[in-house]
């Protein structure tokens, strides 16, 4: 198990190549803007759920798609899905979307996928099973299993990191985490090491947590805003999901390892 921890730590050290010469720029102001997007009150649930999101693999069971009431789509979604379907953006928007039921002040340029009440999403195909446009699905669907607004509210209220109820992808991930924990139990001191890593983080873990939070913002809000924050920090780009996965596994294991999930304060390191 120490080997897994060392490998994940090495993956986090590798992320230090992202730091620009002279260190991260404007971090305090960027952190403040990130705080305005998602309050720190949601930590560690927001970052913990982002880690779970990176680790879980949607089983395309269609549960979300059958039960969803409405699906918001943003311009970026329309562009991506139209390309995926081989349609012009205009035609996609005319055929598959309608105006949002909420006022523009609340939802900006978001529209809704056309869908009859009580029926599944038009892109749900029970024979696949699952989403016909899985590779290009709307950002809200991508975020749905761990990073929907409703789920985050519940996580904070119940002080728990979790997915939407009944998600088989989450069940599989919980099994992996349980196996991870049972290995830790057999090695004295490893559990404590894991906890110390994230609750008194050194520079590489601190950078990982920043990149993970940015990734969470990308999943939650879509790419543009998170990319803008990354540029302001002087980062060449947002980290890719596979670059964060080894650290995400450790973080998810640490959060679910015999420690209350509330009040996990993290030290901020200046570069
Ligand atoms: S319930 Fe989970 S596995 Fe099923 S479609 Fe939704 S996210 Fe995927
Ligand atoms: S777009 Fe795809 S993932 Fe989203 S609700 Fe429809 S079928 Fe499900």
Overall description:
By secondary structure, this protein is mainly alpha-helical. It contains 14 helices and five strands. A hairpin with a 4-residue loop joins strand 4 and strand 5. The relative contact order is 0.21. The C terminus is likely disordered. The site of one iron/sulfur cluster has 12 residues, from helix 4, helix 8 and helix 10.
Give the strand order of the largest sheet, numbering strands 1, 2, ... along the chain: 1-3-2
**Unreliable residue stretches:** 260-271
Radius of gyration: 20 Å
Main beta sheet: strand number and arrangement?
3 strands, antiparallel
Integer tally of domains? 2
The quaternary organization reads as: single chain
Strand content: under 5%
SS class:
mainly alpha
Number of helical regions: 14
Elements, N to C (H/E):
HHHHEHHEHEEEHHHHHHH
Number of strands: 5
Shape: globular
Which whole number gives the mean pLDDT? 87
Helical percentage: 55-70%
Which cofactors or ions or other ligands sit in this model?
iron/sulfur cluster
State the end-to-end distance.
Answer: 30 Å
